[in-house]
Amino acid sequence: MELESLQDLFVDSLKDLYNAETQITKALPKVIKTASSPELQQALESHLKETEGHVQRLEQIFERLGEKPTGKKCKAMEGLIAENKEMMGEDAEPDVMDAGLIVGCQKIEHYEIAGYGSMVTFAKILGDNESAKLLQQTLVEEDKADKKLTEVAESTINLQAASHA
User: Fold this and answer.
1) Residue whose C-alpha is closest to residue 157's, from 11, 62, 35
2) Max Cα–Cα distance, the chain, nearest Å
3) How confident is residue 1, by pLDDT bands cut at 50, 70 and 90?
């Protein structure tokens, strides 16, 4: 795809986010199974449901734009997921594993927050208020998921993992 305008970049970036979200929906169930903390599992299960909604919102935007959501592979997400898979393959105490999984999941959340924040801005500049509203909803959910992971990590998991020192 040739990027000649902000609109082209907007569509291209949305395709990247769409692929990232679909990769997450496939990878997250394995992370949930690997996590030992019920609180972490619950937070991840809740975010998996939200992620499915993110995919649907992006599909809505693509439909409105008359574009197909496919055609782009998010290499960054592929790498972040590969890092998490590597973590899941480690021989680690359960709470140490959970702390590592949170790190990996927060890296993913931060990538998404950056992407959605930019897309909200692009949509507003392009006068696409409906897309901006949908993207803002997702941005808020990604931020809440990140904060929830921090809360879970700081309230119990990191402290438990530190006791293995």
Assistant:
1) 35
2) 55
3) low
Lookup: tokens for 21: 């979200």
Q: Which residue shows structure tokens 């795809």?
A: 1
Alpha-carbon distance of 59 to 24, in angstroms, equals: 16
Answer yes or no: is pLDDT of 164 > 70: yes
111-126 residues labelled b (16+ CB within 10 A) or e (exposed):
bbbebbebbbebbeee
What is the rounded average pLDDT of the residues 20-41?
A: 97
Collect all residues with Cβ–Cβ distance below 8 Å to 123 and sequence separation of at least 6: 10, 129, 131, 132, 135
132 vs 128: CA distance, rounded Å: 6
Q: Report the alpha-carbon distance of residue 120 to residue 122 in Å, rounded.
A: 6
CATH of domain 6-162: 1.20.1260.10
pLDDT digits (tens, 9 = 90+) for 42-94: 999 999 999 999 999 999 999 999 999 988 999 999 999 999 999 999 999 99
